[in-house]
């Protein structure tokens, strides 16, 4: 089981997590932007492990080489920050990636204290309060149900298990994403069938202005590909 996918014993951004509780139970979930998804609670360690492996098994099917439009190849890859398609989103962004803060100030404010010394990709981040900014939206009332129509072009950062899509070319700063995400793999998608989403502006966070339009899907991108709703485009 790759460490880049699973985390046992603690929360990790963009990972499937198995975490024991103080009550002796075991929580299993996908953790993204401070939120728990596909959340289940088990009464025993063995049951939690079985549930954990079952949840991961569905997501990892996207790693296997398959035909375009029928799954996701290289689910943990994506274009690197060195690619022109990624650089254009960052270079065209006003201000620095730390939002006017020094790197150390940014770390102290937005990285979990125990992880201050860890490198990008391993440190845990402090996300907006989920009650004020559910799923990273500006507010609970600033999101609305919508539908992506066939032919629409979208993009995303991070693994293919993400539920967050953006209009192709949305400036990085308006997404309110940390620098960690700019280095986590960039992908482009084409909508094939009408796809239900929640849509609204992002909350300002990580020293960035926010305000960009984000689309929160009802299932991970990998599952949308497998079901024929979207397909990954060439980088």
TrEMBL record:
It comes from the Bacteria. GO terms for molecular function: NADP+ nucleosidase activity. Coiled coil: none annotated. Residues 148-232 form the TNT domain. It holds the Pfam family TNT. Transmembrane segments: none annotated. This is TNT domain-containing protein. It comes from Nocardia transvalensis.
């Amino acid at each position: 089981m790759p460490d880049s996918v699973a985390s046992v014993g603690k929360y990790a951004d963009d990972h499937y997590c198995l975490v024991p509780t103080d009550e002796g139970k075991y929580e299993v979930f996908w953790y993204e932007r401070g939120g728990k998804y596909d959340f289940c609670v088990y009464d025993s360690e063995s049951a939690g492990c079985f549930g954990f492996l079952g949840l991961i098994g569905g997501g990892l099917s996207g790693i296997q080489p398959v035909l375009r439009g029928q799954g996701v190849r290289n689910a943990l890859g994506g274009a690197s920050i060195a690619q022109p398609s990624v650089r254009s989103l960052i270079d065209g962004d006003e201000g620095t990636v730390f939002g006017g803060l020094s790197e150390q100030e940014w770390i102290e404010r937005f990285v979990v204290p125990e992880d201050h010394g860890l490198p990008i990709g391993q440190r845990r981040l402090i996300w907006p309060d989920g009650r004020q900014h559910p799923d990273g939206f500006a507010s609970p009332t600033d999101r609305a149900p919508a539908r992506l129509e066939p032919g629409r072009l979208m993009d995303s950062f991070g693994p293919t298990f993400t539920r967050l899509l953006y209009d192709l070319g949305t400036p990085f700063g308006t997404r309110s994403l940390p620098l960690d995400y700019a280095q986590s793999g960039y992908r482009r998608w084409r909508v094939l069938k009408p796809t239900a989403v929640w849509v609204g502006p992002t909350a300002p966070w990580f020293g960035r202005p926010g305000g960009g339009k984000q689309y929160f899907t009802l299932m991970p991108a990998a599952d949308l590909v497998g079901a024929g709703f979207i397909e990954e485009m060439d980088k």
